[in-house]
Amino acid sequence: MIRIEQLEKRFKKLQALDNINALLSSGQVISLIGPNGSGKTTLIKCILGLVKADSGSIHVNGKLIDSNPQYRSDIGYMPQIGRYPDNMKVGQLFSLMKNIRTAPGNEPDTDLLVQFNLVSIFDKPMRTLSGGTRQKVSAALAFYFNPEILILDEPTAGLDPISSEVLKEKIIKEKKKNKLVLISSHILSDLDELTTHVLYLQEGKMIFLRSMNELQQLTQEEKLGKAVAKIMRNEKKEALWIDELLAAGFSQKKS
Amino acid sequence: MKLSRYIVYDILRNKVIIAYTVFLFIVSLSLFQLEENTGKAILGLLNIILIVVPLISMIFSTIHYYNSYEFIELMLSQPISRRRILLSEYFSTAASLLSAFFIGTGIPVLLFAFNDTGLALLFAGGTLTLVFTSIAFLASVKSRDKARGTGISLLLWFYFALIYDGLVLLILFTFSDYPMEKFTLVLSALNPIDLARIFIMLKMDISALMGYTGALYKDFFGSGQGVLFTTSIMFLWVVLPLWFALKSFVKKDL
Predict the structure, then answer these.
(1) FRET partner for B117 with CA separation of 20 to 30 A, picked from A104, A127, A172, B191?
(2) A123-161 pLDDT per residue, tens
(3) ipTM, 2 decimals?
(4) Which residue in B has a C-alpha nearest to residue A94's C-alpha?
(5) Which residues contact residue B183 at a Cβ distance below 8 angstroms, ignoring those fewer than 6 apart?
(6) What is the pTM of this model?
(7) Residues in chain A closer than 8 A to B81 (CB atoms)
(8) Could you give the count of Cα atoms lying within 13 Å of A8 in the half-sphere of its Cβ?
(9) Domain count, chain A
C-alpha cells in the first residue's frame, strides 16, 4: 500500500508535482498516464526515494520513506532505461542482487528468467546485450524477489510483441496474488487488459484517480484510451494530446 | 561491501585500466633500464607519476561515475542506503586504480629500487590516486551533466598539475620583500601534487633538486616531522572531498 499526502516537488521554474494525494492499495493495477513532462517519472522516483520531495509525505506499507532504505525491500522497480556495468555478466547481476536483497524463506521468482530464456545468456557480459534484452533483464530483476509492490516505468517500450505479451501475463498473474502494480506507459492499448485504476497526471497535478469500472460507466466506453479521451474532451483539456495518443496506439496495434 | 566486489570485477576488466597498467609498467621498466643510477630513474618516474596518476585517476573516475549513473539509480531503488552505494563506488574505483598503479609501477620499483625512496614513491603515487579519485567523485556528484563534470575534472587537474606552481611563483615574486617562508608552507599544503613531490624529496635527500618549498620543509621540520606533516595533510585531501561528495549525494535528486 502506498499513501501519498500533499506531495510537492519543484525543479527550479518547473512545478513537477503539485499537491498530489493518493491512496494506492494492494490488488490494484494502477496505470499512470499523462502527457510528456507531466510528472509521471518524478512521482515514481519520489516513491523510490530517488527524488526528495519538497513537502508532503509518502508511506509505503505504513513506513514513512525518509532516511531508512529498508522500505524498498517491498518494492520491485523496472527502470525506463536499463544500463548496467559493461563487463558485468548477466548471472553476476542476479547474484549481486541476491546478495544485497536476501529475503529469508522467500524463494526467488524465476518465471520471467525462464520465459525470457535469460539463463542461457548468464555468462554474457552486459555490454553485448541489445536494448530489448536489457529490458528483459530489468523486468526479470523487478519480479525476482517477489515484492509486494511493483513499479514499472514504460515496461513494454523496446520489447518485442511476444516478450511484451509474456510480461503482461506475468503482471496479470501478480495482480491475482493481490499485489500492487504501478505502471507508467504511453501505449494505452497495452494497458487495457491489465488496468484496474487510472491515475491521470497533467502538469504535475493529479487530474483524477478512478477505477476502470467507474471510467467505463461514466463514458460508456470499453477501451481505456477512448474512455480517457472522452473525459479529457468533456473537460476540454489537452484533448489534442489524447487524440494523438490514440492514433499512435491504433497504428501500433495494426502493425 | 558486497557491492564493491562486483564493481571491482567490472572495472578490472575495463580496457582503459588494463592499458593504464601496461603503460605504467613499460614506462617504469624502461626508465630503470635506461638509467644506470636508480636515484635518477626514480626522479624521472616521479615526474611522470606526478602528472599521469592524477590525470588518469580524475578522468577515469569521472567517466566511470557517469557511466554507472543508471546502475547507481537501480541500486538506489534497492534497500541500500545512499551513503553505502557511493562509498562502494568510491572504494571499488580507488581499489582498481590502486591495483593498476601497484602492478604497473610497484613491480618494477620493487625489482630495481627496493629501498626507502622506492617505497616512498609508491606511497606517494598510491595516495595521489586516492586523493584525485576523491576529488573526481566530488566534481561528478556536484554536476549533473557529463560534459560539465568531465570538464571540471580536467580543469582541476590543470590547476593542480600546471597552473598552481605558476601562481605560487607569482605570489612569491610579488611579495619577495616580505618573509614568506611560513606562508609558502601553507600554500604547498593546498596542492596534493606539491605535497607528494615534497614527500619524496624529503626521502631522497637531494636538497639541490628540492626546489624552494622542499628546502623550506627540510629546514622547518627536518625530515621526520616533514613526512608526518605531508602525510596527514594528504590524508585530509582524501577524506574531505569524499565527505563533501557524500554529503551532497545523500541530499541529491537523481
Answers:
(1) B191
(2) 999 989 988 899 999 999 999 988 899 999 988 888 888
(3) 0.83
(4) B6
(5) none
(6) 0.88
(7) 67, 69
(8) 7
(9) 1
